[in-house]
Amino acid sequence: MAARLRQQLAKNETPIELVTPKVTAKQNLPASIFNMNDFMVKLVVDWKYTLIGKFNSTIPKIELIRKRFIV
């Protein structure tokens, strides 16, 4: 399904002009700081179905992640 969605979106894709993010470190971990206007206005349309997760140990299998979100 994701592959089909990417294919459909690629047909109508227009490049997004973004301000280069500031690469820095926070609490000794790598971090990127994005322009708030870029994130809230330009990227929200493309990222509306994006899920970002943080795993403290190993990454669980994708099937287990999907089961948690399908109600």
Key words describing this protein structure:
alpha+beta; 71 residues; single chain; 14% strand; 3 helices
What does this structure look like?
The protein is built from three helices and two strands. It is of the alpha+beta class and 71 residues long. The chain has one domain. It has a two-stranded antiparallel ribbon. The longest helix is centred in the middle third of the chain and has 11 residues, at 36-46. The model has no long low-confidence stretch (mean pLDDT 78).
Brief account:
This protein is α+β, with helices and mostly antiparallel strands and 71 residues long. It is flat and about 35 Å long.
Biggest beta-sheet profile: 2 strands, antiparallel
- First-residue to last-residue Cα separation: 18 Å
On the 0 to 100 scale, the average pLDDT is: 78
Q: Low-confidence stretches at least 5 residues in length (pLDDT < 50)?
A: none
Overall morphology: flat
Strand content: 5-15%
Helicity range: 40-55%
What is the chain-wise order of helices and strands?
Answer: HEEHH
Rg to the nearest angstrom? 16 Å
- Strand runs, count: 2
> Which class of secondary structure composition applies to the elements?
alpha+beta
The strands making up the biggest β-sheet line up spatially as: 1-2
- The number of domains: 1
- Per DSSP, the total helix count is 3
Any chance you could write out the topology, listing elements then pairs?
Blueprint: H1 2-11, E1 22-26, E2 29-33, H2 36-46, H3 62-69
Antiparallel strand pairs: 1-2
